[in-house]
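Shipment paperwork, digital attachment
Item: protein structure file
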Amino acid sequence: MQLPSLLIEETVKAALKEDLGHGFDVTSQLLIPAQETAKAIIKSREDGILAGLIVALSAFSLTDIDFDMEIHAQDGAKIEAGDTIATIEGPARSLLTAERIALNFLQHMSGIASLTGKYVEAVKETGVEICDTRKTIPGLRLFQKYAVFMGGGSNHRFGLDDAILIKDNHIAVAGGIAEALDQAYMLASHMRKIEIEVDTLDQLEDVLANGKADIVMLDNFDIKDLEKAVKLINRSMPCEASGGVNLDTVRAIAETGVDYISVGALTHSAIALDIGLDIE
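Attachment content:
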């Protein structure tokens, strides 16, 4: 997965504009001569998985074209505390202007990748895929989902137009599971699958009896009901577990035999990875 360069540029420019307002970096302008240059080292201060380096470096290149950069690690790489990620040399004023924007992206995206990596490791050798959700920061979804991918996870749908995902409120408005599936089936195709969310084993039986769903999401099932659900499905379609998943429960959920586990926390609750920039 790659991030579109145009999207990176637009998003980073917006972040720089937010930080600079309608003016400039008043502190750097007052304290640092215009001709002053500096060299900075970006280092990790804790172990994790790197993501978002190209976004971070864009903050410098979009602030000033006169930077020399050297990359020491790639997105998706496991990094340890003390590892050098990149070195940047150029105009000191511009370097300090871009510093916080660069670190905000890098810390946030690396935090997501690192948390994803922990979930992936927790279900190792079960064959289960860890997936993200649409619980993302508005405007940053593609960046966050990219970070999940760098952490070894899989991307669920990117937007409402990607796939047909029938959730509980859709079912309520449509008048029931059969009604919702019958209506959705008319617009489904081999390129647009139907996934439906169920909350109970009775609902699952209704889905199986209807036969029009391609994937079923088992929402907030406990372990015993997940095991029963997997047996009922009997490999007739892929199944996804969601709701209440954390690092303490994810292994047990995976061992029930589900195919996918979606985790909203990957994007909405990841703690930023501690990464710093220091002037040499």
